[in-house]
Amino acid sequence: MSFLEHLEELRTRIIRALMGLAVSFVLCIVFANQLWEIVSRPAIVALHQLGFAEKLYQHTPMETFSVVWVKIPLLVSIFVASPWILYQVWAFIAPGLYRRERHWAAPFVICTAGLFLLGGVFAYFVAFRFGLTFLLGIGRDINIAPVVSVTEYTDLFINVMLGVGLVFELPVLIFFLTLLRIVTPGFLIRNSRYAILGIVILAAVVTPTPDIVNLMLFTVPMCLLFYVGIFASYLLVLKRENRRFPWKPVLLTTALILALVALALWVAVTRYGVKIVPYWPFLLR
Q: Which of 17, 93, 162, 170 could potentially form a cystine with 85 if both were Cys, beta carbons 3.0 to 4.6 Å apart?
């Protein structure tokens, strides 16, 4: 295609992606109140744990409308429409790939959207809740009570959700760099120390709090995702060289480790009174 044809194709894909986002946005507006209850739940839980009034406050007449009926539905619609948006991205770049590489369409959409959604889940249930409790509790012992604005709370929530969701795309980025022959698994392993340093810096930017514990909550999963990306690129290199990965012993070892972890959890719950809860640190006694 010519340059103008590429621009026309780009315009078409952007319009289709926006149409999918608009449909998702309309559907999310129908459940705007229920979505706000879900979004505000971490604040209510954090305020309850700290002994403060379990309320968020509206400071301007338009504040609740813009948050509950615009910002939150738009955020949720981005996550809901992410598979369709990513398919449009793939459809735009696919003509520039080899025929055999175009078969990665379904894995690309599934993995990329799945990681984005997984990042949102991690942000909601772990990173945001832990960071919010820390932030709201800083002044508790020095006679400072938080008055949380609906807008400021929502802006922080959106930044963390989208930031962590994008960070979780790291394996896909590494895979595509390998697919385009820009990097190799060996190169990534040799320079992993620099990658980890960059991950720590990025985590410090994304982290909503300055404490080391919350920084590690971001850094550890990002480092794991980095090595998952290296593993995916290694599988790609093996496929190019017509070699096979030893799946059977690896899967057996993984299953054994998971079985031991499950046994340890069962013993902790049945004999030592440990309870599994849906928030950090997930295990309480």
A: 17
